[in-house]
Design a protein that fits this description.
six-stranded mixed beta sheet, 3 domains, Polyamine Oxidase, Chain A, domain 2, alpha/beta
Length: about 475
């Protein structure tokens, strides 16, 4: 089966979004590639189950990947995003408070600035105590102007921000990185009530980090990404992303049910078909599998995630859930966030049925499925309006290694070159998001092309500047 693969330039181990994105970049540059996947199906954690006409994601995370990022990844320009309603809905245990898009955007941007300012104050104080000379202060005016442009775009587009990702202003001094909860405890100048109203649950949902122990710098970037982009779901399920990435690869590029047991700079060893020689190897698996193939690779901690999918009568019937299509953030109970997936993306449900997706984080995510279902049902009754007896649990998916943690200090672009001829990519080398996986795959492809002496297809920076 792998005779064709034995003459390839690059073997990619793992057919998740990062590995498939790297394969698209490399084949587009004329490099021959073989993608070997140990599972029977591609996709990694971007899996969508089909059950009685429902399409049920394993991950359940809303995406905030910008349209510009999708355009930079070959094949994803055809992806159809199904956006959430602008703004947020926060449930305090009794009722839903609707937070408009302008308010939530301004609040997120102000909180991002406040986090960065608080970290820079800490850095300057530490420097003074150590007797060091501090660096040049950041250009606060440029930072404020960039945020004002984002808010103006939001207002012009009736609550929808232009999809772009902002970088810190040129010349800005890097902020010290510390745990998010420590930065929040310093009570910097957050907008009125944002600290308690929606900032903590929003950060917990964006980062899958309910204890907020991760990087404050990563939190600031996530808030800017939320404010300048838009939350959405891929039409048809999360599997649409790897499916589109693999669709245009040359026939025979992706081989499933092939388990790689060892890697080197000149090839890989497979359990089923022996050695496969090549010029370079890219390990694009999850962090734990990558560490088994690359001893010494640091394995991060992980945030466990459990996703529950419930169905009920169609909208408008007895016990039917509301038509709310915004992301709902409870401030108490085991539910981290929930949304009406069937209303946002009707292709995920059969006719006449609704689909509610709920995500539980932290310690509660490890509860047995039956126990967790009983625990979340009363909370879902209050949030969505359906009655417990009318709601049916379709499936539960628990992943203890769902999201790589980003403890402070966190490097959002960890090296992808292990040796010349041996590379690694994945969300654990970047940020624990789909955008981080795509970005990591692109960086790995660029490193391979550079070592091959070939020009890269693009010279665009990995972080997109804010639009004027």
């Amino acid at each position: 089966m792998l005779r064709t693969a034995s003459a390839v330039d690059v073997v990619i181990v793992g057919a998740g979004p990062a590995g498939l994105a790297a394969a698209r970049h490399l084949t587009g540059a004329g490099v021959s590639v073989a993608v070997l996947e140990a599972s029977p199906e591609i996709g990694g954690r971007s899996v969508t189950d089909h059950l009685d006409g429902f399409r049920l994601d394993h991950c359940g995370r809303p995406l905030a990947v910008s349209a510009a990022e999708l355009r930079r990844t070959p094949g994803l320009g055809e992806l159809t995003p199904r956006p959430f309603a602008p703004g947020l809905s926060v449930h305090n245990g009794q009722r839903v408070q609707r937070i408009s898009a302008p308010r939530s955007t301004r609040g997120a941007l102000s909180a991002a600035r406040a986090l960065v300012r608080a970290d820079r104050r800490t850095e300057r104080r530490t420097d003074r105590q150590a007797g060091r000379q501090t660096g040049r202060l950041p250009d606060r005016r440029a930072e404020r102007d960039a945020d004002r442009r984002t808010v103006r775009r939001l207002d012009r587009r009736t609550g929808r921000a232009a999809p772009s990702y902002a970088t810190p202003p040129a010349g800005s001094a890097p902020a010290v990185d510390r745990p998010i909860r420590d930065a929040l405890a310093s009570r910097p100048a957050f907008p009125p009530r944002a600290h308690d109203a929606f900032l903590r649950p929003l950060l917990g949902a964006l980062l899958c980090d309910p204890q907020l122990r991760g990087s404050s710098r990563g939190a600031a970037a996530a808030l800017r990404g939320y404010a300048e982009g838009q939350l959405w779901l891929p039409a048809g399920g999360a599997f649409a992303v790897p499916e589109l990435l693999a669709a245009a690869l040359p026939p025979g590029t992706v081989r499933t049910s092939v388990r790689v047991t060892a890697v080197s700079t000149t090839g890989v060893q497979t359990a089923e078909h022996g050695p496969v020689p090549c010029r370079a190897v890219l390990v694009a698996t999850g962090a734990r599998d990558a560490a088994e193939l690359l001893p010494g690779l640091r394995v991060p901690a992980f945030h466990p995630v459990t996703v529950l999918h419930h169905t009920a009568a169609t909208y408008g019937g007895r016990g039917a859930p509301s038509r709310e299509t915004a992301l709902i953030l409870p401030t108490d109970g085991p539910v981290a966030y929930t949304y009406a997936a069937g209303a946002i993306d009707p292709s995920r449900t059969p006719p006449g049925r609704a689909l509610i997706t709920t995500v539980v984080l932290g310690a509660a995510a490890a509860l047995p499925p039956a126990v967790l279902d009983r625990a979340v049902r009363p909370q879902l009754d209050r949030i969505h309006g359906a009655q417990t007896g009318d709601r049916q649990l379709l499936t539960t998916h628990h992943d203890p290694y769902a999201v790589p943690a980003m403890p402070a200090p966190h490097d959002p672009e960890r090296p992808v070159r292990v040796l010349a001829g041996l590379y690694v990519c994945g969300d654990h080398r970047d940020t624990g998001t789909l955008q981080g996986a795509l970005n990591s795959g692109r960086r790995a492809a660029r490193a391979i092309l550079q070592d091959f002496g070939l020009p890269a297809l693009t010279t665009e920076p990995d972080t997109l500047p804010a639009a004027a």
